[in-house]
Write a structure and sequence with these properties.
Blueprint (H helix, E strand, L loop, with lengths): L16 H11 L4 H6 L3 H14 L6 H15 L2 H13 L4 H8 L6 H15 L6 H9 L4 H24 L10 H6 L1
Helix pairs in contact: 3-9, 4-5, 4-7, 4-9, 5-6, 7-8, 7-9
């Protein structure tokens, strides 16, 4: 049961309502995470603006979903594991690959290097080693892409932590992050 209630969009603060309507127009629904962010129009705007900015990165939408999954796996966030598994499928990633991504693995060596880097960022709270940075560079990632991987991890840590605090009710097909991350 959630500890911070997801608002019905019509009951959300007036400033949040147009943002929730835009989410519904884009996704066809308003996920509980957004309905919970809606308590604070500033937080909802922060999240939506950041997501929009990250959609313009040089790393692909698929890789951003894969990074979201490994971050959810490391932080054992069922809500984000569930949401990003569904979005990853929408980005054309096969189910077995998505399950592997949640554990920080991939059938693609370059993707695996990015996921390993992301996993280390989460595990070490950003205090990576020179060797960690050298490995992601050796896989072919340039400075801009490395910067974007870090930003994608940070954005997903925010949602993971928020979901832990609020105990957001999962409104996607459930994926248990802890179970798959441990497999």
């Amino acid at each position: 049961m959630s500890r911070i209630a997801a608002l019905n969009p019509v009951d959300a603060p007036a400033q949040s309502q147009p943002m929730l309507a835009a989410v519904k127009a884009k996704l066809g629904m308003v996920p509980n995470l957004f309905k919970t962010f809606a308590h604070s129009p500033a937080v909802l705007q922060f999240y939506l603006s950041g997501s929009e900015a990250l959609s313009g990165t040089s790393i692909s939408a698929a890789l951003r979903e894969q990074i979201a999954l490994v971050t959810a796996g490391e932080n054992e966030c069922d809500y984000c594991a569930s949401a990003h598994t569904l979005m990853g499928k929408g980005a054309g990633i096969a189910a077995p690959e998505l399950a592997a991504n949640l554990r920080g693995d991939s059938g693609d060596a370059k993707v695996k290097a990015a996921l390993t880097f992301a996993k280390v960022i989460v595990a070490e709270r950003g205090r990576i080693s020179d060797a960690d940075l050298a490995l992601v560079r050796a896989a072919g990632y340039q400075e801009a892409e490395i910067t974007e991987i870090v930003a994608t991890v940070a954005a997903n840590i925010f949602t993971n932590y928020f979901n832990h605090v609020s105990a957001t009710d999962v409104d996607f097909p459930l994926v248990k992050a802890a179970a798959l991350a441990a497999a």
